[in-house]
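Preliminary data (for renewal application), nicotinamide-adenine-dinucleotide complex.
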Amino acid sequence: MTLAGKTAVVTGSSSGIGLGIAEGFARAGLNIMMNGIEPADAVEAERARLEALGGKVLYTSANLMDPAEVRGLVKAAEDAFGGVDILVNNAGIQHVAPVEDFPEGKWDAIIALNLSSSFHAIKAVVPGMKARGWGRIINIASAHGLVASPFKSAYVAAKHGIVGLTKTVALETAEVGITVNAICPGYVLTPLVEKQIPDTAKARGISEEAVKRDVLLAAQPTKQFVTVEQLAGTALFLCSDDAASITGSAIPVEGGWVAH
Ligand code: NAD
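Predicted structure:
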């Protein structure tokens, strides 16, 4: 079975891991609905670059903290392409602070985007996937979906939550041609990680260079950042026929981090 001509929604694909996965999908000839919080004109160059690689590529700006905007994103893809075959729940944010100082608004925002938006998107795409008897749902969790680090209470809670959501929906859809899996990346040098370096330095009272060396890559036995290309490859594999029996799993792509 070829993936060319199938349709994928990749949330948070204006940047970082989502953009890398969208690029991998574009090279495989998929039609793609890109998404991000940025306005369409800010993403137009990337959208056009991806479209030149393969299938049709559209972009919908949506604030996925609002469930109605999540449903709107799925509907825009269904209207444009006739259905959603592959959903990648990737949009996410981070905030780093000790739990006693953790702003309540940041907790709510991280749970809304990193966990609840995936529930709303899954709920919106599953009926169409069931009707067509085929679907792939890939949730970008994190090594922090499997283990914790200090100062990331909301993020770790949301990422553990999405691993549980993955397993539950996998069980519910196991007999109808749909697989549901989580990918658990280690550190990837994207804007999300670059932004948390100063806060981690402050929380731990160390330099930013020391954060990269002694905090981020300290957990990663390979001492290498994971690349977006490696994650795109994992996502494409999960979409393939060879991965049809992989469902409900949380796949670490983290340089050996969770082997500790
Ligand atoms: P990034 O900051 O580079 O990109 C985040 C994306 O999310 C952007 O496209 C942005 O537009 C979108 N986004 C942010 N707020 C949004 C909102 N309210 N509504 C819709 N879209 C919104 O981040 P990244 O590092 O590529 O992270 C992507 C995912 O991978 C996240 O879920 C993150 O938790 C996860 N992850 C990242 C790493 C890492 O080291 N970078 C490791 C493990 C997991």
